[in-house]
Amino acid sequence: KVGQPSAALLAEAPTxxxxxxxxxxxxxxxxxxxxxxxxxxxxxxxxxxxSADAHGHPRENRTIxxxxxxxxxxxxxxxxxxxxxxxxxxLDFPLRPNRIAYQLVRAIMVYxxxxxxxxxxxxxxxxxxxxxxxxxHTLSSERGSSKPSLLSKAWTEMDITQHVQQRLxxxxxxxxxxxxxICQQQKGSEGLQxxxxxxxxxxxxxxxxxxxxxxxxxxKAKLPPRGQEEFKKRDSSLFLHRAR
Amino acid sequence: RAAIITSKILGPTQEHVGSxxxxxxxxxxxxxxxxxxxxxxxIAPNLYTPNYCKGACPRVLRYGLNSPNHAIIQNLVNELxxxxxxxxxxxxxxxxPISILLVEANGSILYKEYKDMIAQxxxx
Lengths: 244, 124
Prior knowledge:
The complex is a heterodimer.
Chain A: H1 7-10, H2 17-25, H3 38-51, E1 68-72, E2 77-81, E3 86-95, E4 102-112, E5 114-117, E6 120-131, E7 137-139, E8 146-148, E9 155-159, H4 161-169, E10 175-185, E11 205-213, H5 215-222, H6 226-243
Antiparallel strand pairs in A: 1-11, 2-3, 3-10, 4-9, 4-11, 5-6, 6-7, 6-10, 8-9
Chain B: H1 2-7, E1 25-27, E2 31-32, E3 42-44, E4 47-48, E5 52-54, H2 69-81, E6 91-103, E7 109-123
Antiparallel strand pairs in B: 1-5, 2-4, 3-6, 6-7
């Protein structure tokens, strides 16, 4: 039925992963289409075009290394000035609850290492931010390795997989990855006040989570096929027989 | 009687003469995500080609249809034992995946490869 919501049709078979996703994650028709434009969308479109053709067929030579990539934008940012010409923003990335069928392969922070703001050139980097207790914030000594992005020279990618896996991934409930986006004025422009509070980091830094779909292996682990069980029983009885 | 049926594998089948176009085969089919009601969610690709399998399964299954032994037996059961057991159905045999780019309700952008989304060949 053209144009009609397909949720009612899909609800009849809610166990398949595709059906579950369609029911849980597809925004309702009545909702407005989420407006995501700018750098994150351009980045993901570029990633898509490198990984699939215009008809959606995955390219054989794709280098993505995962079956799913989620781009997460920061929730909010707090701008504040530290000593000298250094500016720091704390970025909060909300992480969805873990799904058993998806295995985290990589976590990459993508950001602009050169930011041009109100006539000033800033050089920026990202650091993981570890909250030890509510009153004492400590900058983590861990740092991922940064390298230029394969997609565009303007982007730098920092691998923070270890940080995410060790500190956040196995936690239950609401999880937020906190990172600090640190920018420094380049030589010659120190001491001038930048309108930093007017800017948004939403387009200058985002998180990429790479997953592999392990649905089939999870299903196998949960429910061994009947034939396999029978084979195991038969096999063990054979073994006992031989031992005897 | 089973021998009569199976002997037809060797000679040309006469039973479906004139209905070649009705035999189980892959049909090209394209649909837009707008037609499926998902265009507010999916960014790329614009069109999706799931294809479909349609047609009658021959009484004597051809080699190229990749039918399992079970289908051959089901045909024999239908013909010789009990016509309540239907002839095998024409269904997809091989599938291809599709990559989709979509925007989630919270504004995250997702690239995902979905398996088994495009029918590539059919079987009985």
